[in-house]
Amino acid sequence: MKNQIRLAMFGCGTIVKSQHLPAALAHPDVVLVALVDASSDRAANLMRSAHLNCKISTDYASVLGEVDAVINALPNHLHAPATLDALAAGVHVLCEKPLATNSADARACAAAAAEKGLVLAVGMNRRYQDNHRLLKLILEHGMLGTLEGYDWQVGGPYDWNAATSFYFSKAEAGGGALIDYGVHLLDSLTDWFGPVTDFQYEDDDWGSGIEANASLTLQHKSAQGTTPGYVRISRTYPLSNRLLVRGSEATAELLLSDPDMVVVHRQVGGQSISETLRLGDGSKPPSNSFHLQLDNFIQSIRGIQTPYVNGLQAAAVLELIESCYARRKRIPEPWSELEPSSGALA
Amino acid sequence: MNWQHKTVFVTGATGFIGGRVCERLIQAGATDVRALVHTSKNAARIGRLPIQLCPGSLLDQTSLRQAMGNAKVVIHCGLGIARGIVKGTGNLLEAAASAGVERVVHMSTAAVYGLTPRPGSETEETPVPRTGDAYCDNKGEAEKLVLRFASRGLPAVILRPSIVYGPYSAWSTRLIQELKDSQAALIDGGNGACNTTYVDNLVDAIFLAIESEQAVGRAFFITDGERITWGDFIRAHARMIGQEMTGEETIPDISSQEIRSYYASQPGILVGSVKAAGQVLRSREFRQMLLRIPLSARALAGLWRWSSSLDEQSRTRLRERVGVRKAAAMATQNGRFIPDEVTLATQTGTVFFSIAKAQNLLGYQPRIPFRQGISLVEQWLRFANYL
């Protein structure tokens, strides 16, 4: 097929195996030409398990001359360096979140893409879920009335089967639950409710820089007004895994378990009623956000679309995360704070 | 104890007890804690701490030695399954002996005397019997290994806590869910000995065992030192969710005799479960169908018990594919919940273990009484969204 985009995967860990690779193999405009990973065994195993015949490399620089685009799913601390190298070589980049472990590096990536006229898309796949677009429509059309606030809680025992342990290194991950998962929530929230103008932040980091729990009280400002909200993220506790957006007329509910719908609750004639809203006419199959994200990346390379999340937007969210870490307060854990006694703690 | 610059190696660090040990070490000023991490999947709690997460396995001698590094103190909370308990402990002891560690604290269990300890097992001098239960017997075998290494000069101590509870404990999270689901009962009025051990009391004992010269080569029961029954424990949790508030009993009471009669009237449960296993493992649909049938649910309960004798990998695979734990609590008769046989055995003991030896030789004094421990658990359960 002519004009196919020659694509390489940087990193062959869980997210590539489970999401990016299936999306790439399903896309008619993409030809996968290389798998890159620090472990050649991991790359080779992935190639075999997917019945592929492509180049395997442990050095991403060695494939840059052979591809048009890369999906960068290396450990977080390598996102920015590899993205910058790819852009310098004239290669478009879809980079997993977070784009960098700090906002300065993210801005450097955005500047490099702009300078070279290349596409830099950031893997905020939740933007492509139906419920994100549905809530945006609901808010734009004032279906909830005057916005009163939101409450978003996402959490459960951490069970991401990462290929390496970088998630528990501050230097490699950039932080814990907030930068890993909160980056999705903050990106969506700023898209729905506007930039954050004020916040309070707490987490339970005991000194490693890898918090398991984080909570934020936020205030957004947009043309529609000011919206307060509360976010709680946990890698240890089973939270409700839902977003409630309260308005004067109705409340919208988004469930992690079904990203294709939004439930709107309201009072009618003194009765509580709920409507389940979905995109389309009811015959639409479930959407796959990674497939849609890749397609948006490909269409952006072709100049037909622009990325849902570009480098500057990603940098703005990282700036907020940096501010959170800089102003963090410790979540009180009274069950952990014992008075030393009888020499046992001494 | 001056923990600064003393390297401490903790196994089982991603678990409930090991996680708290790591937290307490940091609170006590330890600056060089190495935690053995088999998989980072469960590492979020200890990932918050300024400690080294060392990849490795108790069943892999090379990775174990690397992870241990130049540790001077080893706190062995790693569990393992079935024979892995013994092999993993053996590997650890060998590594510790060759590294010349100054102290090993081995986390055993009072269950070396069985899930229902015989009367007369109140003190550590009672010989450890063969119980017929894979977990209990393997923990007993692991103790023998520790004593053998201690007799050859390894400064090792054995602690035998009983029902260790506290924040993050599955005893509490599971019980809360069971109470909410009406899947909990008092057996014989809830009068069985519970032998609670609040996790921080246990960690106090661990720290004392590291310091005490008299502790080496000995085993110690560690409990809260109170005569807490299963009824006390279950009712305390029920109150957290608004049950048992009026003084009127809301938790069903069932006699141990009735439970035994019930299971005795179900001949061939184990055989049936083994026969069913192949089909269960092959078919998700069949499994779901089975779970809707009380008799088969009981068969799965039997399967759960049988699975405890499997190696770790097989058991994990079985658990993941079959979801037997849920099924194990599904036995009902005329709509009435029937506790499984493991629960029956655990909650009908009469022995309250003595902590006199730990008090005398370690200087152990349980500083968190049950009332306070339960209050801390409740605070944590509320924060953790279980209540």
Structure notes:
The complex is a heterodimer of chains A (346) and B (387). Chain A folds into two domains: 121 residues, Rossmann fold; 154 residues, Dihydrodipicolinate Reductase, domain 2. The C terminus of chain A is likely disordered. Chain A has nine helices and 15 strands. Chain B has two domains: 248 residues, NAD(P)-binding Rossmann-like Domain (Rossmann fold, 3-Layer(aba) Sandwich), CATH 3.40.50.720; 94 residues, no CATH class. Chain B has 387 residues and is of the alpha/beta class. In chain B, helix 3 crosses helix 4, helix 6 crosses helix 8 and helix 10 runs antiparallel to helix 11. Chains A and B meet through loops of A and helix 1, helix 2, helix 7 and helix 17 of B.
Q: Pick out the low-confidence regions of chain A.
A: 342-346
Structural class of chain A: alpha/beta
Domain count of chain B, please report it: 2
CATH architecture heading of the largest domain in chain A = 2-Layer Sandwich
Name of the CATH superfamily of the largest domain in chain A: Dihydrodipicolinate Reductase, domain 2
> What percent strand of chain B?
5-15%
Query: Which percent bin holds the helix content of chain B?
Result: 40-55%
Oligomeric state of shown chains: heterodimer
Distance between the termini of chain B: 38 Å
Global geometry of chain B:
globular
Instruction: Walk across the major sheet of chain A and give the strand order.
Output: 14-13-12-11-7-10-9-8-15
> Secondary-structure element order of chain B, as H and E?
EHEHEHEHEHEEHEEHEHEHHHHHHEEHHH
* CATH fold type of the largest domain in chain B: Rossmann fold
